[in-house]
Amino acid sequence: MSYYEPKDLADFPNITEWAQKEGNKFFEYYGAATSAGKLTEREKSLIALTVAITQNCPYCIDAYTTKCMSLGISSEEMMEAAHTGAAMMAGVTLAHSTQMRKIIKKKEM
Amino acid sequence: MDARNQLRILGQIGNIPYLAKKIREINMFPIRAKGIDILQINLGYLCNLSCRHCHVDAGPHRTEIMSKPVLDKCLEILSSFPISTIDITGGSPEMNPHLEWFIGDAARLNRRLIVRSNLTLLLEEPYRRFMDVFAQNKVEIVTSLPDYLETKSDRQRGTGTFAKVVEAMRELNLRGYGMKGSDLIIDIVHNPVGAYLPGSQAALEHEYRERLVFEQGVHFNQLFCLTNLPVGRYLDYLIESGNFEEYLSALCHSFNPAAVKNIMCRTMLSVGWNGSLYDCDFNQMLDLTVNSGAPAGIMDFDMDKLKNREIVINNHCYGCVAGCGSSCQGATTAGN
Question: If you ran DSSP here, which 8-state letter would residue B94 be given?
Answer without folding.
Answer: G
